[in-house]
Write a structure and sequence with these properties.
147 residues; mainly alpha; Sufe protein. Chain: A; 5 helices
Length: 147
């Protein structure tokens, strides 16, 4: 499995940063989660909840005819760590093909060195976001292949 270039650049940025910079860097990613589009705004029922996150977190995706994935995340503004994880995934993977996302290592975040600043319980949140996103993409691609 290869880490896509954009995500690898984020991983390297964190890996090389001193521990004291990692949490502020991570929190900056909370600002990179765009608002939901009108068709999902206020419609958490149309999204999948990531129960492993400590705060209410929902995700959805669209896959275009070329297999490119657009991601949508919904997390409270009062949950900056969870939003930050979503921001990392969004910045690193949004707009890539389903195959590129499915090929992303599930544990990419370990190389970021987040264990220095974020508890293992919180780190499981980023793992769960990617896992559920991959599960949804895989299911959609299998449905497309079957039709």
């Amino acid at each position: 499995m290869d880490t896509p270039k954009r995500l690898e650049a984020i991983v390297e940025e964190f890996r090389e940063a001193p521990a004291s910079f990692k949490l502020p860097m991570l929190l900056e990613y909370s600002k990179k989660v765009p608002p939901l589009p009108p068709h999902l705004e206020g419609r958490q029922d149309a999204m999948e909840q990531v129960h492993e996150c400590q705060t209410p977190f929902f995700l959805a995706e669209d896959i275009d005819d070329e297999g490119r994935v657009t991601m949508y995340f919904d997390a409270p503004q009062e949950a900056p760590t969870t939003r930050s994880f979503a921001g990392v995934v969004y910045e690193g993977l949004n707009g890539l093909t389903a195959g590129e996302i499915l090929g992303t290592p599930d544990d990419f975040y370990i190389r970021m060195g987040l264990s220095e600043v974020v508890s293992p319980l919180r780190q499981r949140g980023i793992s769960a976001i990617l896992w559920r996103l991959k599960k949804r993409i895989r299911a959609e691609m299998e449905t497309r292949e079957a039709s």
